[in-house]
Automatic annotation (TrEMBL), chain A:
This is Signal peptidase subunit 3. GO terms for cellular component: signal peptidase complex. The keyword Transmembrane helix applies. It comes from Lentinus brumalis. It is found in: Endoplasmic reticulum membrane. Keywords: Endoplasmic reticulum, Membrane, Signal-anchor, Transmembrane, Transmembrane helix.
From TrEMBL, chain B:
Keywords: Endoplasmic reticulum, Hydrolase, Membrane, Protease, Signal-anchor, Transmembrane, Transmembrane helix. It catalyses: Cleavage of hydrophobic, N-terminal signal or leader sequences from secreted and periplasmic proteins. It is found in: Endoplasmic reticulum membrane. Its EC number is 3.4.21.89. Component of the signal peptidase complex (SPC) composed of a catalytic subunit SEC11 and three accessory subunits SPC1, SPC2 and SPC3. The complex induces a local thinning of the ER membrane which is used to measure the length of the signal peptide (SP) h-region of protein substrates. This ensures the selectivity of the complex towards h-regions shorter than 18-20 amino acids. SPC associates with the translocon complex. Its main location: endoplasmic reticulum. GO terms for biological process: signal peptide processing. This is Signal peptidase complex catalytic subunit SEC11.
Amino acid sequence: MHTLYSRVNNVSAMVSTCLMVLLGAISLSSLLFTADPKGTLSISSIQVFPGNARRYSNKNQDFTFVNFNLTADLTPLFNWNTKQLFLYVSAEYENKQGVRNEVVIWDRIVRRKEDAGLSVAGRNKYVFRDVSASFKDAPPAHYTLKYNIMPYVGVLTYGEAARTVDPVPFPERQDLS
Amino acid sequence: MFADELKTLRRLGVRHVLLQILNFVSVLASGLMIWKGLGLITNTESPIVVVLSGSMEPAFYRGDLLFLTNPPSQRYKTGDITVYKVPGADIPIVHRVLETHDFVSKEENLVAASPVVQKQLLLTKGDNNHIDDIELYQGLEWLERKHIVGKVRGFLPYVGYVTIAMNDFPQLKYALLGGLGLLALVQRE
């Protein structure tokens, strides 16, 4: 019990046990926070234009451009174990062939509680295209705001904060004149 | 320096040395059993991975540990952070799903056993990258379920840096293994 080796052994065993219990307690404490904030999402304009696919420049493809208004107060999601919040607006729709699609068109990383009260008038950051290269005759789409809470230690959680009340139809393809 | 240890070994005999080696090997074997058992429960080939690149910053930095599962009865959704391996590349990539396209079978008499049976095409993107991962797919246009190793469920910061250090400085790996082996052989218990 009095050699350097046994002292180092005991101290390191104690430190690692305490550290593991502490990390386990922190990750479990995230279960106590069950906030479920809701916001509003509305589409202000939506247009469909033709273009060329990125990889094959002679392949025609339809691109949809969406402008939306988003308000949400997500501050209840921030607790001592929240490292950042990953928010994303996605479009859910079924295309003419019956394929169910979900496409993320905008995202944002929120790292501080002060930035969590959102009021955004945004447009799609990412290219919104369909697997079949055309939005013709596609049924209307629902747009949702979802979040992913990323903790300092522990389990990642997901949730939905806003959803368009009525489905938004895809307009006819406009030609670039 | 080793004169004392050699004298002890000679006194205890060959049988003692063999017993020590057996102890060492059984520790290794139980470690391997736990690892493979975890892989079976979570349905992935490597349930714990270390983040290698900075493409998911500021969420995941190099050296963070991620816990994965691959539930066969759930389909992948946008926003899930997946670890995938493109055929032809050995390194697993940790990125977030940007698009999902589910081909639902319309056949009348087909009973879908699980969502995995239906074809699902995915597109991913790292949080810290500006564009999606098409360049990384080595010719594929979409990822399929079979390319995905698992979905990130839990996270532990900094712990994995040991494996990155051992990869970058192989001398550290040999020194550690050599030291552990020596310690196991000359331990009295």
